[in-house]
Structures are given as structure tokens and as C-alpha cells.
Here is the input.
Amino acid sequence: MKLSLSERLLALREVEPFCGLRPAELLTIASATQAQRFAPGAVLCPRQGMIQRLYIRISGAAVDEAGHPMQAVIGTTILLTGQAAPFAIHAGPAGLEALVLPRSKFFTIINECPSLLVGFFRMPLLGVDYLGTAAP
Here is the structure.
């Protein structure tokens, strides 16, 4: 799946917390991402695995082991804490199209765009907290 830089910028503008960033920050992030399509059921991260990418949903869904849809940005907690995933994450029944940011670029982006980190901490967490324990 190939998206131009402008298409990646537009996709980021549709997703919290990216929609609140300055244009220069969005450009930095869009330049570091690649668009990728995942087939239905594709494993994004196995249970107790370490996620290696940040996934920013364009269309479709990522789901947990029970098939519940997850939020539009997948991987923040695992990338920020270094804790293993408490459950497996898969592409949903219709698959997933996402902008993908490799772990190797994630912390560079956080350093260059600190307001993104603030946005991540404002996002609701699904099933896990930033300590890596099950959320109530």
C-alpha cells in the first residue's frame, strides 16, 4: 500500500492525538511513517510479545483476543513502557490499513514532537495502564 506524503498528512489529521499537532510536527511524523495493509486476522503483536511499531489506523480495525475493536493508535503503552503485551493484537475481520511508525523512529519523533507525548497520555487506555498492569 503506497500513500503520498500529503495523503499520510491528511490521514494523521483525522486521528487523536495527531490532529492537535502543528503542521511542522505532522510533517515530521508523516515523513517517518509508511502505509501498510494487514489481512484479516494478521497478528500485529502476540500475547506477551513486544510490539515493534506504532500503528495509526486509516481504515479497518485492530482487535484484541476477544475481537473487541481497539482505539485508532495501537502500541503507545507497550512502546513507552517496554512491557510485554498482556493480550494478542490482530487485524480485525475487515483487515487493517494503518500508518506504521517503526520503534526505531518512535522515540526520535517523541523527542522532536513532545506535544505528541502529552497527547498519548491523554488517550484512554484499553485493558492496560502505563505500568503494564491490567486496568480495572
